[in-house]
Design goal:
single chain; six-stranded antiparallel beta sheet
Length: 261
């Protein structure tokens, strides 16, 4: 889901506090969804649980009806990269599942994603790709420092993935976030170090890594939303929100289980 605004909006300390609250809730709900997933569930079951958890916590889904998107979350399985529409597909042990959730809390957006294996038993390739995806996101967050360059953030993502022999998706990426789910700037999964805008105090970013086991090429399914790898090999997706401040970079979506989310 691409950024739709053309102006970068820096956030005040108060606004970062509101984004922190939205981010913490989105991370907690994502963790609860991951813990609830078992073989035999459908992706629609997960969507219904997400809708209930958001409602019970006073949050409003940000994906539902966005440009016509028909569900509360995105649930992408195996070769599906992002934007998988929840439906009747039953999950099997060993499926690679990416969950992406977004919600508004008091008018500010929380947005986060993770990938894991259903049933906990991963193939060696899936386990390695997930580990590399997490490392890539961690590297991009480490590069997202006050007065740094946006190109350094994107390059950090790309380098970890490509050094491991995998590929990054180039058509999609992260974005600014605030009162709108997608704000400027766009944050690609690839970049050139030392280039791009300076990272200024008050900038809040949703950093996203999309890494494929095979080709970087993607296709779109006939539903108009679901993105798949062109070679049908697996893909992973990780996303966290960060706030840039002069005192350091704060992760606004701490999952509580950093080893696996």
């Amino acid at each position: 889901m691409a950024a739709t605004q053309s102006r970068i909006e820096l956030k005040s300390a108060r606004e970062i506090g509101l984004l922190r609250a939205a981010g913490h809730l989105s991370a907690r709900i994502l963790f609860e969804l991951k813990a609830a997933v078992v073989p035999g569930m459908t992706t629609r079951d997960i969507d219904a649980l997400a809708a209930r958890l958001m409602r019970e916590n006073g949050a409003v889904p940000s994906f539902l009806n966005y440009r016509g998107y028909p569900a509360t979350i995105c649930a992408s399985v195996n070769e599906e990269v992002v934007h998988g529409i929840p439906g009747n597909r039953k999950l099997k042990e060993g499926d690679v599942l990416s969950l992406d959730i977004g919600m508004f809390v008091e008018g500010y957006c929380g947005d986060t994603a993770t990938t894991f294996v259903v049933g906990g038993k991963a193939s060696p390739e899936a386990e390695r790709l997930m580990q590399v995806g997490r490392q890539s996101l961690a590297a991009s967050m480490a590069a997202a420092t006050f007065n740094g360059r946006l190109g350094d953030v994107s390059y950090a993502m790309q380098k970890v993935v490509e050094d491991a022999g995998f590929t990054v998706v180039k058509e999609y990426g992260g974005h600014g976030i605030g009162r709108a789910m997608h704000e400027e700037p766009h944050v690609p999964c690839y970049g050139k170090p030392g280039t791009g805008m300076r990272l200024t105090e008050g900038l809040v970013l949703a950093l996203e890594v999309m890494a494929n086991a095979g080709t970087a090429n993607i296709l779109h399914k006939s539903d108009g939303w679901t993105v798949v790898t062109a070679d049908k090999k697996i893909s992973v997706h990780y996303e966290k929100m960060v706030a840039i401040t002069a005192q350091g970079t704060e992760v606004l979506t701490p999952h509580g289980d950093e080893g696996s989310l």
